[in-house]
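The record is passed on directly below:
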Amino acid sequence: QIAAGSSGPGPAGELALLPLQQAYLVGSDPEFCVDAVGCHLYREYAFHRRPAAEVHAIWRATVAHHTCLRARLTPSGKLTYAAPGDPDVQICECTDENYEARVTAARERLSARPDRTDRLVVAEITTSPSHTTMHLSIDGLVTDGYGLLLIVSDLLAGAIPERPAAPGLRSEERRVGKEC
């Protein structure tokens, strides 16, 4: 679906940014303003007694369901979407003794990403024999707060079988001035 007012897909399935997305992009450019700030969402989730491979599988299913998690920013400043597949996830294996230090390092690196790359969604998993934490770094070009709620609801529904997913919604079905 294309949001109202959008020019639709361009070359090779590219979508022009909406005005709010353009503001996020310009506002985060340190060459444009001294106090560059964009919209960025960071979350982390502890998956107790879950191996990294299982958490990765849960993330894979979530990405398959939410197209916006496959968004990429082209050099021309447009959005394109990767085909469904195995999402790129860095898995950091460590000991129980250095687990907290590794989680802290990932949090510091991903919670305030000063670099905007073509990868608008970065997922990392820190795992030890006793603990697993998933770190999500999501650029505001991809989704808004409500979209994040739907994404996280599906992520946690995959991790907690008795927790229901959001009722039939996908993050891209709720558009508030966003493509996704």
Notes: The longest strand covers residues 132-139. DSSP finds four helices and six strands in the chain. The helical segments are 19-27, 52-65, 99-111, 145-159.
